[in-house]
Amino acid sequence: MITADQYKLYGFLMSPYSMKMRAYLRYRRIPFQWVTGEAANTIAMTEVEPYMVPVLGYPDGSYVNDSTHLIDDLESRYSDRSTTAENEADAFLALLIEDYADEWLLAPLFLYRWETEADQTHNAQWIIYEYFRGNIGHEQFDAMTELWRTRQTGMLKAVSGEPASYDMVKASLHDFLAIMERAVRERPFFFGSRPSRAEFAIFGMLSQLMQDLSSNRFMREQYPLTSRWVGIIDDMSDFEGDWESVSDQPERSQNSIVYELLKLSGRYHLPMLLANQTASQNQEKFYSLKIAGESHKRRVLPRALPCLPDLQQRYGVLSDSAKAALSPVLDDTGCLPFLID
Ligand SMILES: N[C@@H](CCC(=O)N[C@@H](CS)C(=O)NCC(=O)O)C(=O)O
Could you read off the pLDDT of 294-334 as tens digits, one per residue? Predict the structure, then answer.
């Protein structure tokens, strides 16, 4: 029996990966304490490499970060309410969609978060308010807000790319949101009536768009049901459901949200990961490529370098029957060439 003083999740409300992990732990019914503010930052700075939230404190006193890695570990420790679909091919698709959300959707999120002055002020204040755990009277509140605003705004090109592709980056988010809005009208989950890890990764990113100034407005006005979906996924500790395979019937997969999301992975996410890897191998500081007809240039992201080899490895170890079920859909959606090393 695990008790709530054994796991501690160190994170922030305005960190997409922290919210992803929090919703995941709630759904899995793994009891934990949520630790935010300066205390969470101190753990991230002193207990893990690289410095990143969220960090999970384990019952044995160890600390681990990286949400994908943490979910892998918790999936292997506990079997009840697993987020790994029974069907191996579906489980792989969920991982691919998780990686798309983690690695691509951050670019538009960060852009909307830090582009305009109104967003910079509002969003930095929210982050620092949480850092001081609501103590707005803290003497360093204004100075820290300004520091954070400047720091994050200075990272805009490194996270979201050069301004020439800002329109493409934003359009990629709206393509995704339009797909979500159509899908959640029909059903909330991608692989049946229970969530996979893909829904949690998407939730993490959307939870941020709901908090930030400009994006909150377009979320509510243009994507009202997706906005409500975010609130539901946040705590699904009571939900029960069943898996329903998407990959075992070609017509079912072609008419699913999974197929639409894979097209986005094949259009934005996987080409970006490959360009990032190639530039790094050639010892270049920047990668650039054409995405959706636009030039996209960004500083090489070392943190994203393990993603493509990891996806290729996970694809490589699938059974022949899973690969046979996946290959038409992965081919059609433009993902397959990136997954074969
Ligand atoms: N792949 C990691 C990414 C985590 C991450 O990038 N966290 C950001 C906040 S959302 C962070 O801590 N950045 C450190 C910084 O801003 O210096 C995960 O899934 O947990």
Answer: 999 999 999 999 999 999 999 999 999 999 999 999 999 99
Q: Is the pLDDT of residue 1 over 80?
A: no
Residue 324: CB atoms within 10 Å: 11
Mean pLDDT of 89-114: 98
Beta carbon of 99 within 6 Å of any ligand 1 atom: no
Tens of pLDDT, residues 115-125? 999 999 999 99
Q: Over 90: is that where the pLDDT of 335 sits?
A: yes
Architecture of domain 8-77: 3-Layer(aba) Sandwich (3.40)
CA distance 253 to 248: 8
- 286: three-class secondary structure by DSSP: strand
Ligand 1 in reach of 67 Cβ (< 6 A): yes
Distance (Å) from CA 187 to ligand 1 centroid: 30
Take atom 20 of ligand 1 and give the residue whose Cα is closest: 66
Please work out whether the CB of residue 17 comes within 6 Å of at least one atom of ligand 1. Answer: yes
Question: What is the residue extent of each domain of the chain?
Answer: 8-77, 88-109+162-339
Q: What mean pLDDT comes out for the span 88-111?
A: 98
Whether the Cβ atoms of residue 24 and residue 198 lie closer than 8 Å to each other: no
Which tokens in the block code for residue 135?
A: 């103590």
Q: What are phi and psi of 297, to 5 degrees?
A: -125, 135
Task: For residue 52, report the distance from its CA to the centre of ligand 1, in Å.
Answer: 4
Ligand 1 center–CA 54 separation, angstroms: 7
Q: Ligand 1 centre from 340 Cα, in Å?
A: 28
Global confidence as pTM: 0.97
Find the helix packing angle between 88-103 and 197-209, rounded to 10°: 20
